[in-house]
Design a protein that fits this description.
108 residues; Cytochrome Bc1 Complex, Chain D, domain 2; 58% helix; mainly alpha
Length: 108
Amino acid sequence: MKLVMRILGVVLGLTIAGQASAADAKVAEALAQKSGCLACHTVANKVIGPAYRDVAAKYRGESTAEAKLIAKVKAGGKGVWGPIPMPPNSPQISDDDIKTIVQWILTL
């Protein structure tokens, strides 16, 4: 009986975590929309800037990816994804919002 209860607990925990992740993703995507990020990026396709899935794939497994991307979003950048520069997004987007968006991108 204890084993069954433990298994049910794990399944329930994973279900709740999955729902929280989906909710977090919706919040992050809404922040990206509100902040104007989706004018140049989409999840799946290159527009002006790279697709977020391509960004996630490029930095997958890199321990410094989050900090690197947060800095790039704040300061802007050019040359990594082509000749069109990304303008700086600080201070118009808060540090917390940038972190939320970057964390979401890295989950894609």
